[in-house]
Amino acid sequence: MRICVIGAGYVGLATAVMFGKLGHRVACADIDDRRVRDVSSGRAPFYEPPLENELAKLVKSGMISASKDVVAPSAESKFIFVCVQTPSLSTGKIDISALKAASRDVARAIARTNDYKIVVVKSTVVPSTTDTIVRQILEAGSGKTAGKDFGLCMNPEFLQEGSALKDSMEPSRIVVGSSDKRAGDALMRLYAPIKADRFRTDLRTAEMIKYASNAFLAAKITYANEVANICRRLGIDSEDVLTAAGKDPRIGPLFLTPGLGFGGSCLPKDVRALRYKARRLDYPAYLLTAILKVNESQPNEAVDILKDVFGDLKGLKVAVLGLSFKGGVDDVRDTRAVPLVAGLLANGVDVIAFDPMAMSHFIELMPTIRFASSADEALSGVDACVVQADWPEFRKIGRKQFSKMRNPVVIDGRRCLDPGKVETAGARYYGVGYGPASSE
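RESULT FIELD:
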């Protein structure tokens, strides 16, 4: 089968590699020159080694190719997967300009041939986008009719950055929304080798499933953070509380680790977009608003802990370890490191920052702070450090590094360190949701 994947970001490249591994020839189309060059050379445009390793093999074997041309590979393919980004606007509404542009290119491809093609939207879009905007563009640009001359499906992704390929090959579920049975049946057959629970829906339901999933994950993280914040003020270790709570099968243990808030390309954007859509329907979306409010203030927990320890923070030197939105990725979209650093600077703190992979991206966001070339350098001479992203190498920091600190104080913003090991290595440990703290 010939497949075209439009967009060589996380979703597009993971989709391309998955279908390449299943034996299909995949053409990746992207308007970005650098991404096309990277993919053509077998390199991923982002940090994800397992995905890149498989990509290199498939490019070398000729199963995956890349091009800036969207129309030609779309015209030659049976399935056309649209995987372009839909970032947030300042209002929370999603920006679908890239989706519209891709749809116009696909419409031109459909117009070139009499073959029945299946257009699959994998980009995250609010309900009613595929069956109105995308459909209208495809029909107007091709002169053909959806459900008759070509198929239209909505196939949401449920990937986590850092494990995109694994999540593609071993998904928790496969959701196919379609405008007609023929298109839905064909897409389900394409996924036949993948073992997972399957759901057939209409287009809007498929779009909503994605938002319902991400909104719940955001709510669960926010719940864990809220409980942890209260626990710290009571002098209670929230780890015991949340671990026990997670044993309830109605709650479950996943996404119950407290931290400095959620970031990345999906959860913040999707919660904002769903709230915007709800408000346009005259529904206030109180829970979604609360989730965003707690998440925005959560990085202040690290600042508050520092104040508990030191009092006045003016003139303090603090290292921030981890600048990506989570460990294992180089993505700084909505990273909590930005409000964390901003909060430290507002209190007169001298900040030095380090991340194993995301440094170049973060420098574009906050170019005026100091950066270190290693964790060792970042810790030298500082009064405290805040672990903002859970990179595995930070768990190995010990006595040698702590001895270089002027005041060996560690604020664990991701609860990824062992408090006992930190204390044994000569540093004072404090964490989100971890005492000691003043209480009444």
